[in-house]
Amino acid sequence: MTPETLAALIGFAFVMSLSPGPGNFLLLASGANFGMVRTVPLILGISFGFLSMVFIVGLGLGEVMARYPVIDDILRLICLAYILWLAFRIARIRSFGSADHPAARPVSFIEAATLQLVNPKAWTVALIVTVTYMSPDGGIAGLLVMIGIFALVNIPTISSWALFGAAMRNFISHGNRTRIFNIIMALLLVASIAPLLMFNR
């Protein structure tokens, strides 16, 4: 990988990791409701899910998905259902991590990774990454190096959303602010997939 390609990959990884989306809104809500430490599995799950997709696409699944567009349509429906379920969970949280409420627990590592694996937008980004930044003669070693570089940028960057949420805990802990905040987060989570549903491939 040339220095120019490396710089471009780092820049792309930073922008894509920092931009608003379902995963980052989940991190913001989790940081505010459960703090940074309890949000770590969510951070790692989001990153692991996406980077696993990059690896799978790099091995050739991207060509299969391009050949069978119906896969994208199926993923859209699954993603919509999953996002609505997560938004419902967030909207029901009334206080910070209250143990007496079944919805009041952080999104787990597996749940976070699953979100990425059913997210067509994430599959598209994974395809862009492999096509644009993967060397044709790099093989699996080159693919793993690219994934490692992306991870070094992705994990700290998406963590900033959780940190921002954790910094808001004191402000939203008074009165009905927690409930209002979580309802807003649920609505933003659903709104973040609107472009996915409104526009065709």
TrEMBL record:
One of its GO terms (cellular component) is plasma membrane. It is a multi-pass membrane protein. One of its GO terms (molecular function) is amino acid transmembrane transporter activity. Its main location: membrane. Keywords: Cell membrane, Membrane, Transmembrane, Transmembrane helix. It is found in: Cell membrane. The keyword Oxidoreductase does not apply. GO terms for biological process: cysteine export across plasma membrane. The chain crosses the membrane at residues 6-28, 40-62, 74-91, 140-168, 180-199. This is LysE family translocator.
